[in-house]
Amino acid sequence: MWHVWRMSVEEIPLAGGNVSAGVVRVGDTVRRQAGPWTPAVHSLLDHLWSVGFRGAPRPLGIDEQGREVLTYAAGEVPWPHHFDLLEPLDQLARVGRLARELHDALATFTPPADARWNALIAADRDELIVHHDLAPWNLVIGDRWVVIDWDNAGPGSRLWDLANAAHGFVPLSAHPDWQRADAGRRLRTLVDAYGLDQQQRRDLVPLLTVRTRAMHDFLRDQAALGVEPWATHWRTGHGDVWRADADYTEQHTDRWLKALLD
């Protein structure tokens, strides 16, 4: 049974990411709209804490407004204004180790029989429950490094989650302000730190494009249906960004293979 929290202090709106409407800080907690998926997500987060993983918020229940209550993670979100925090290769390697520790902890999670998930995009396969948006807009860097925004967790695979992480943390971007000459080296650093074997590295490379293009296609399809906030994202150019990034990533497939295998 969930604990019901009653508010007694000021609410401070929290910005960041692409979908943060209604997310507020109350003291040392975060409140955000709950959904049918919330019980499953809280079960997952409880599991992570029970096995010693501390890189995720801890669920504390539901407040009197029906919002989920999570522990607040103090620190900076790297994207887009603090990406310098991830510039050093040792910091990027820490992301890779964090992702591996997270996936290893998730691999021991048994979802409730009645679990309902809110994953937006179908993954390549159902291997374990994954975050589905490991990215610099969902990481808080402070005394602890904490992966936030678990609403879209659901069935997926390690490589699917890692492909998305590579897009954001390397980053694998077509935009001239973010495109990097050292992208191959940074991808290698991330993957080495995660600990993929040779075959997994080969399998990861095509997923770098597939996962990025899947986000473009999701935005396109949701915009056609008029579903918010995705229709607004599409109208304001997010789809163009994801398409360009997918094209860039695909055009450099041989570069990524060479970086990971040589």
List the helices and strands and how they pair.
Elements: E1 4-5, E2 11-13, E3 24-26, E4 29-33, H1 38-50, E5 59-63, E6 67-71, H2 89-106, E7 128-130, E8 139-141, E9 145-147, E10 154-156, H3 158-169, H4 183-194, H5 198-225, H6 230-235, H7 238-251, H8 253-261
Parallel strand pairs: 1-5
Antiparallel strand pairs: 2-3, 3-4, 4-6, 5-6, 7-10, 8-9
Low-confidence segments, ≥5 residues, pLDDT <50? none
Instruction: Name the helicity range.
Output: 40-55%
Report the top-level CATH class of the largest domain: Mainly Alpha
- Report the portion of residues in β strands: 5-15%
Q: Structural class of the helix and strand makeup?
A: alpha+beta
Separation of the first and last Cα atoms? 52 Å
Q: What name does the CATH topology of the largest domain carry?
A: Transferase(Phosphotransferase), domain 1
Question: What's the overall geometry?
Answer: globular
Q: What Rg is obtained from the alpha carbons, in whole angstroms?
A: 18 Å
Keywords: Transferase
Organism: Micromonospora humi
GO molecular function: transferase activity
Protein name: Phosphotransferase enzyme family protein
